[in-house]
Amino acid sequence: MSQFQPDSPATPAVNAQRLWAGGAATALVAALAAVVGLLIVRGILDTPVITPERMPGNSQAGSLALSAAIAALVATALLHALMVSTPRASNFFAWIGILATIATALWPFTIAATTASRVASAAIYFVVGIAIVSLLTGVAGSAQTTRRIGV
C-alpha cells in the first residue's frame, strides 16, 4: 500500500490518449476551417485560392481539408515530443506554431497571382494555423499530469 509522501518529487507525465484525442478533434476543426474559408473566398468573394500545385485528388476543398488535418496531426506529434522532453512545452509549441503559421500565410505572396487572391489565401492559412495552435495549446494543459516518484 502506498501512501502520499509530501516530500516525494513529482515528474511531469503526458496522458497520450487525451493528447491524441484532442489532436484528432483539432484535425477535424482545422479541416472544416479550411473548407469554410475556401467557401467564403471562392464562393462568396469569387476570388481564386492559391494552393500547392501537387495536391492529392482533384478537389481543392478536399486537398485543403486534408492538408489542414495532416498539419494538425503533425503539430500534435510535435507537441507530444515537446511535452515529454522540454520544460514549458506549451510555450515552445506556441512559438513554433505561430512562426510556422506566419510562414505558411506568407507563402501565397511568393506566387504570381492577384493581390486579392494572395490576401484571401493567406487569410485561410492564417486562420487554420491559429486554430491548430490555440486548440492544441489548450489540449496540452489538459493532457499534462504529474506522477510522484517512488510512490
Task: Please report the number of helical segments.
Answer: 4
Mean pLDDT: 88
From the alpha carbons, calculate the radius of gyration and give it in angstroms: 19 Å
| Domain unit count | 1
Q: What layout of secondary structure does this protein have?
A:
Layout: E1 10-14, H1 16-44, H2 60-85, H3 89-106, H4 115-143, E2 144-148
Antiparallel strand pairs: 1-2
Could you explain the architecture of this structure?
The protein is built from four helices and two strands; from the N terminus they run E-H-H-H-H-E. The model has no long low-confidence stretch (mean pLDDT 88). 68% of the residues lie in helices and 7% in strands. It has helices at residues 16-44, 60-85, 89-106, 115-143, and strands spanning 10-14, 144-148. The chain has one domain (10-148). The protein is mainly α and 151 residues long.
In short:
The protein is mainly alpha-helical and 151 residues long. It has helices at residues 16-44, 60-85, 89-106, 115-143, and strands spanning 10-14, 144-148. The chain has one domain (10-148).
List keywords for this structure.
mainly alpha, two-stranded antiparallel sheet, 4 helices, 2 strands, 151 residues
